[in-house]
């Protein structure tokens, strides 16, 4: 099946520094990738939709200058948390959409997530 | 507007007994519906999906779900719970565009 990887799986950084998280589709090409954030004991919140070769579309309330998303190839999207602060500590999950839409049958495959802790 | 509601934030069952996790959706169009499982500090794993074919969908690990349009429901069931089933379960709906909507999740506890 379709596999999505994320790197790193966990990261600890100091307040004010920037952190880059990579999301890769390992055995398929993903024209669209999504970035989610999950707070403890809560559901996932969509942060942005990333299409290869174009600017990401951010959800309302998500600071695009703080959460930089790049989708430079069909198998790689990156999320950079700039000038991280403790409130940015969270579990970040990416997903990639597989194949072409057939009726309403497409689905997303999720990466394993990245735990970010900002001290 | 589309939405998905998971009716229980926590469900506890004894090992070997049936599991029922409830999910209702709201949609003006024919939805695609999914159930995902998330183990602690892990990513999401697809359990099963409904995409307008058979209304009873079988997934991995013995789980299944039935799409009931008249009740706008897509409840997840398993005949016999196993300790390894303890996790967070998310009902997800996809309607008409690229975005998907997550339910708030149901934490499944398995009692020995």
Most extensive interface: A-B, 23 and 25 residues
Mean pLDDT of chain B: 89
Number of helices of chain A: 0
Total count of strands of chain A:
11
Rg measurement of chain A, Å: 14 Å
User: Spans of chain B of 5+ residues with little confidence (pLDDT < 50)?
Assistant: none
User: Total number of helical segments of chain B?
Assistant: 0
Strand content of chain A: over 45%
Summarize the main sheet of chain A.
Answer: 7 strands, mixed
Helix- and strand-based class of chain B? Answer: mainly beta
Q: State the distance separating the first and last CA atoms of chain B.
A: 41 Å
Tell me the strand percentage band of chain B: over 45%
**Oligomeric state of the chains in view:** heterodimer
Can you count the beta strands of chain B? 12
Q: H/E order of the elements of chain A?
A: EEEEEEEEEEE
Point out poorly predicted stretches of chain A.
Answer: 101-105
Write down the secondary-structure element order of chain B: EEEEEEEEEEEE
What is the distance, rounded to the nearest whole angstrom, between the alpha carbons of the first and last residues of chain A?
37 Å
Structural class assignment of chain A: mainly beta
Mean pLDDT of chain A: 87
Q: What is the overall silhouette of chain B? A: globular
SSE blueprint and pairings:
The complex is a heterodimer of chains A (119) and B (112).
Chain A: E1 4-7, E2 10-13, E3 19-25, E4 32-38, E5 44-51, E6 57-58, E7 67-73, E8 76-81, E9 90-97, E10 108-110, E11 114-118
Parallel strand pairs in A: 2-11
Antiparallel strand pairs in A: 1-3, 3-8, 4-5, 4-9, 5-6, 7-8, 9-10, 9-11
Chain B: E1 3-6, E2 10-14, E3 19-21, E4 23-26, E5 32-38, E6 44-50, E7 56-58, E8 64-68, E9 73-78, E10 87-94, E11 100-102, E12 106-111
Parallel strand pairs in B: 2-12
Antiparallel strand pairs in B: 1-4, 3-9, 5-6, 5-10, 7-8, 8-9, 10-11, 10-12
């Amino acid at each position: 099946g379709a596999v999505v990887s994320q790197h790193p799986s966990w990261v600890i950084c100091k307040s004010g520094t920037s952190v880059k998280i990579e999301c890769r589709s390992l055995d398929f090409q993903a024209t669209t990738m999504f970035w989610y954030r999950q707070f403890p004991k809560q559901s996932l919140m969509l942060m942005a939709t990333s299409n290869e070769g174009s600017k990401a579309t951010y959800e309302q309330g998500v600071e695009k200058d703080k959460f930089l998303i790049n989708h430079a190839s069909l198998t790689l999207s990156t999320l950079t948390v700039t000038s991280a602060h403790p409130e940015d500590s969270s579990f970040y999950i990416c997903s990639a959409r597989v194949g072409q839409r057939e009726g309403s049958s497409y689905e997303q495959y999720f990466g394993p997530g990245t735990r970010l802790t900002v001290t | 507007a589309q939405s998905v509601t998971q009716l229980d934030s926590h469900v506890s069952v004894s090992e070997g007994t049936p599991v029922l996790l409830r999910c209702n959706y709201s949609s003006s169009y024919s939805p695609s519906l999914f159930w995902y499982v998330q183990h602690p500090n892990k990513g999401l794993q697809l359990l099963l999906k409904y995409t307008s074919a058979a209304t009873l969908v079988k997934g991995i690990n013995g789980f299944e779900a039935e799409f009931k349009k008249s009740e706008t429901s897509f409840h997840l069931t398993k005949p016999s719970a196993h300790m390894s089933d303890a996790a967070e379960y998310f009902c997800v709906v996809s309607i008409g565009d690229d975005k998907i909507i997550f339910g708030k999740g149901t934490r499944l506890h398995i009692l020995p």
